[in-house]
Design brief:
It is built from three helices and six strands, in the order βαβαββαββ. The protein has helices spanning about 15-20, 30-35, 60-70; strands at about 1-5, 25, 40-45, 50-55, 75, 90-95.
Length: about 100
Amino acid sequence: MLKTTLIDGFTPAKFDNQISGNLLLETAPEDDVRAQKFLIGVRNEDGDIYRLIGATKHNSFTNAVEELEDLELTDELADMEGTTHEGCDAIFRQE
């Protein structure tokens, strides 16, 4: 199961309901989500990471990435495999 949290102080993106509708997400405190092995950030229209999604297994992480790509979101780190940015292994945004 993927864990997720909304980051206080940031507005969710207009497409956020699609994320929660397409992924099986368990809401958890931010510290619990950040403690997961793999971390996905989602940016809002202002460019802020407002949602974090954490996965314990690579398979779960890969499935989440594929679901977000199916929503036509772009992974900023796709060409930089093995690199993290802002603490995330993938960061998605709408083009």
